Queue: 2 jobs
Job 1
Amino acid sequence: MMSENCLVCRQVTKSYGKKEVLKGVDLTIEPGHIYGLIGRNGVGKTTLLSILTGQNRAGAGEITYNGQPVWENETALSALCFSRELSPTILFGQNTLKAKEYLKSASCFYPNWDAAYADFLIKEFGIDKNKKICKMNKGMMSLVTITIALASGAPITILDEPVAGLDVYMRDRFYALLLEEYARSNRTFILSTHIIEEAANVLEEIIILNDGVVRLKENTQDLIDSCLYVNGLDEVVDRAVSGYERLNTEQMGRNKMVCIRLKPGQSFPTEQYRGELTVSAVPLQKIFVYLTRQAGEENGYASFNDHA
Amino acid sequence: MAMLLSMIMRNVKNDVRIAVKTVGSTALVMVFFIVYGQLSGNPGFFSIAWTLFSYLVPFVILFQFPGIYFGIALSMGTTRRAAFIGLQVLKVVVAFACSLMVALGIVCNNLLSGMPAASSAEGMFTMFGYGLLAASVGDFMGFFSHHVGGKLGMVFLVAVCTICGGVFGGTIGVMGTDGMLPIIQMFTMPLWVFLLAVVVSCVLSGLSYWLFVRRYAVR
């Protein structure tokens, strides 16, 4: 039975001209989780997120929140926050709006806006409220976006590449603040990110968007646990991995490394091959790369030498 | 319905905040051109033209600001219809404020010249109608220039303001300092024609604005 306050997306499509970006996306966002939406550049992550929050219209399909359509629905939209990347240009040229104007607008529109928390974040991030957006670097713009998202108090809060341009310290600070806010409020967060390894510790569920559809939606730890590198002599590896789904194969001489994915209930007999094979975990980033390969990329990246 | 009203009020609150912010800067522009026009002696074509231009530009600037801020409002969870209705409410509020300013100006002028203080209800009403007209043209032009986009949109906007200012101002320049009265009388005689024009222009500009807005996609 579906929980209340779910954001549900059914068979959503979207095209820009002749290019079909979303080809029938089905997705359910349940309350009280931190989701990571990952996908290659241009796959339609921002498009999907803007459709989920009524900022863009779907070509077909439906989006509902708590059973009600999201499009032009004040009740549904009051529960959603999509804090998107700020732009240094707007309308007629440079974006000369100041950070404080965005924050004031946010305080007008978000019914659960937490002004005290916003002030805390502004101090924490060192944001100069009187600085014009066009004068900010990418990192500072990201921090303004993060402040709006975290202080919005929206039950479902979406951040589109929030750590773009942030240094390592600020990225770490952001993840800590996100977890703190999540523990405090149990809000639902959806992060669209390319920096997968860092975010892996924060994300409860991974959603991979590929080829216009949701390729995978799974618990992060379960996904990591289900993938293994099996490394050793090629004939031993081939014998050991037969019957398992292969995500990737690399061979150098007689040494072969295969990435396998275990089905639910399946396991790999590591003890049986002790001394012959090395079995290790696969980083989430690598799992993403293997799962989102395009046709023709199965044998790895193209090399300039192949064209010479 | 309650949520729609609540969201409309949030839009009005945000738009009024933006409008008040621009009033100070646009008022300075108006004062500069009015003073320049008066100090330049017998008003000729260009001084009056610029004076009238200064009256027109604030309306247009005022009402394209919500157009600029429209995308921001949408990205913060408002619906298009609430943003649209909020802007129409703002137009009425600003037009009403302009008519009050006219009344205040007339009263001050009469007091300073020793005449019995009097307000011109007809002048106020005319100014209210003129304010709505200018605002309707303003928001249509603002959004149209947004639709055209970029520097070309800005050039279009400035060109229209300059031409309108020049036409009005030039007319006043030919007719002399009391040239404002015939212009106002054009709008007030007969009153029902003026009112009809106001209503029709508000409806048409609102409708065309809504046609732009209803499927607007935030990028």
Job 2
Amino acid sequence: MTSDETLVTQAQNTWCPGCGNFAIQHAMKFVIQELEAEGMARDQIVLVSGIGCHAKIADYFQLNSFYSLHGRTIPVATGIKMANPDLKVICFAGDGDLYAEGLDHLIHAAKRNIDITVICHNNRVYGLTTGQYTPTSPYGYRGKSTPNGLHEYPLNVIELLLGAGATFVSRAYTRRLPHLKRIFREAIMHPGFAHVDVLQICASFFNMTTWYDERIYETSESNAGLFEFACRTAQQWNYNDDSKIPIGIFFQTKKPVLPEKKVKKEVDRSLLVRTILDRAT
Amino acid sequence: MDRSDICLTLFVVTSIKRSGAEISQLEAEQLTEYSVLIGGKAGDGIAQAGQLIASIFSELGFFVYQYVDYPSLIRGGHNFCIIRAAEKPVYTHRTGVDLILALDQKTVDLHTQNLTTKGTVIYDSPRVKAEGQALAIDEILTQYKGRPIMGNTAMVAGFCGCTGIPWTLVESVFRKKLLKETDLNLLIAREAYSRITRCFDLHQVEGSSPRPLLSGNEWIGLGLLAGGIDAYVAYPMTPSSGVLHFLASIADEAGIDVVHPESEIAVILMAQGFAYAGKKAAVGTSGGGFCLMTEGLSLAGMAEIPIVIVLSQRGGPSTGLPTYTAQSDLLFACHAGQGEFSRFIAAPATPDEAFRWAAEAVQLAWKLQIPTFILSDKTFSEGIYTSETRPEVRATTPIPAPAYPYKRYADTPDGVSPILIPPCRGEVVKVNSYMHDYSGITTEDPEMTVAMVQKRLRKAEKLASMTDQPGAVVCGGSPNAKTAILCWGSPRGVCSEVADELGLKLISPVVLSPFPAGEFRKAIQGVEKVLLVEDSSTGQLDKVLAREGYRTDELILRYDGRPFAVEELLERVRRVVS
């Protein structure tokens, strides 16, 4: 078997034809093979997925995985990384999953700069539950739960992440594959919390292919170290208006990383308990 | 005035006051057990003062129990502790107190009625008006330039003077327990000590040496360490936070991770992340936080991830009575989480049991890959106890090795699929919240579903056989009595004393899930009348027993947030047995 074949399981793929998830899986497979060729062992990788169409990726990759709950990739990934800092922990989450149900975890993970990678399959709609609005759906979106049109503006998640203190904030698009691969690679290699908001279409409920193709452009990353510059780039598109959509690394910086590389001493528990009891006597 | 002048002044004052004390020594009382109540405003350091008194009793060889009563606020309000010391193990308080130490007027107004006939009051004069011995705390603090919080030091020293505890012993305990501004505290203590006349004659208990003194939460934390936890994850919530604080304070020394994340939802999932990567993790919370954990609990059931949950109950529903006790989450703990999966629940009632069962909870979680619970409550978690024995860490049995190629949910006779910790060269470890196949990949296949459900049911059977063992149900009182007091968790202490006093049998299951049917059957044999004592309004153990085919005859329930004192329960039980 080729390395490519051994990276996928026998599980039947049930994503809709044309789904953006295929591109995400393909790009990630490419990056993993590249990293493997450079000496990283694939069994060092742990994938954590939420619940939604995106999450099936855990079944499809023949890699260590934790198929978690809706909205709960990040706390699981945080625990895994803290338990073993040598593991490469990558979260795959959906936009409803990550930006609605699990938003608090995202903010706090960015704040504590936990060394994990979070990839959001952002199709701006709930696919598996058949087409309801998510936090990034545009104003006026008509879904089964909002038949008269959505009366909320979408969340600009890039601004949100910048505000939360994320040290790697990026956006990519599933139909710009070489760019997507590069962003994935940079995100995985970034020491600290790395976030990739991947714009993708939902072939069944929110097909935006032409709309995205006309507006998306690769932004210059030469000022990615400047926070104020990043904020301005983030504001070019608010997930709602008809404007140009920048993709790329918006912001990248260094901050103290969790977990700290601290060697834990092996402690004899019998002795420890005796010491504590003596102290309490 | 330099230091030597202070010493000289102290000496003079001491000698004058001592002569007074010596005169009254002839009338001083020697008791076999003592109850001391110290009260004041929140912020007066009442709990700390109580612990100092408890330490002094322990130093004298007494068994100690300290009840802590405080409202949910930081400043003001009325806090009090009752420290009960006896020559035999004590796990509950009495209403009657021999000595009241009043740092506020409420202490006198609320508790003087409970003073025993030989009892006395020491009060902070002139702030508090009372009959007894006045202690001019402000005057002492001004004299030594002490801070207001040191008033509690003065009061503890007043207690020492009143009970005739040798100064050398007082000083040694203060030096050991008061690590900040020790010398200043000692000056204040010495002054207060010398101003109080002796009323009791407290002696070293013969043949008895000091015992470790820790809160219920600390005993649980110590048991978790003994069981081998590598991580403790918790969001602060009274009355469980003591476990978090204790383990955080020793995390570096113990080589464990202690994490306080953004919510209880994050807590239980983070802990399962630790477990996936091979680190034994426990979490702690109270009812409201546990509500948030139920989704993650069910995940642990489906994905078969070992996890230990310390659930310390308080008055509910909802925010309820944050700092007061209840036993109203038994059925919740038994049934929380969607779907069907087994869990282990133990409710320890003593420090020795807390240590033993917390360690056991860690081991069982990993042997069977299930969620396990230590069910506590405010009374046990925040009560302070000396243990009966000096607990030791037990050797643990190694976990069986997996077969290769590895399948996370491989079918086995006992339903337990050996765990493999990633990274493992050439193998993948897949866990899944969906129904899954043997390798951890999502399935909706009916036959595979049945196989997986039955695999988990076999684990439940194994759990029951492992836990329905001696020790799962504790008995006491009169073994052949026809009437039994039935209880679980913290009320055991008070029930045990009442059963002894009235010649009744005591039956107290420690293991509550799976219900130890065999051990309970043995315990209940020959009993004709059962009185259930529980801190709830519905009698939840009664409902657990009904499912097992038993019925209780009387429910003695309490739901005002306060635990029964011995006298209170005696009265309630007498009403139904006479």
